[in-house]
Design a protein that fits this description.
This protein has 122 residues and is an all-beta fold. It is built from no helices and eleven strands. The strands form two sheets. Strands 2, 4, 5, 6, 9, 10 and 11 form a seven-stranded mixed beta sheet that branches. It has a four-stranded antiparallel beta sheet with strand order 1-3-8-7, with no helix packed on it. A hairpin with a 5-residue loop joins strand 5 and strand 6. The model has no long low-confidence stretch (mean pLDDT 95).
Amino acid sequence: VQLQASGGGFVQAGGSLRLSCTSSGRTFSTYAIGWFRQAPGKERDRVSCINSADTTDYSDSVKGRFTISRDNAKNTVTLQMNDLKPEDTAVYYCAADSRGGSYCPYIPYEYWGQGTLVTVSS
């Protein structure tokens, strides 16, 4: 499974960005997809995830501001990020796992894409 993350960029605080994670796999609909981020000098953190049943989860820091969704016909998971804050600045990574029906925050994701940089200015 190959994953391609895109959509990062530079935005002012309060702005929005939409990240996309596209997969080359033919069984995309059965996978759980997670978004993670890593800020400079910090550990990687979980942001959001969606499993094969479209059950979603969000970290407390983004709940109410970010929305994850999937379009299996396009092999794409989208992370809509609104009301961005400077502390959202990070490299964002998407990941996939074949244990798609599991509760997605607890999955040890098998496949990782390259990151896309999000920079939010104050």
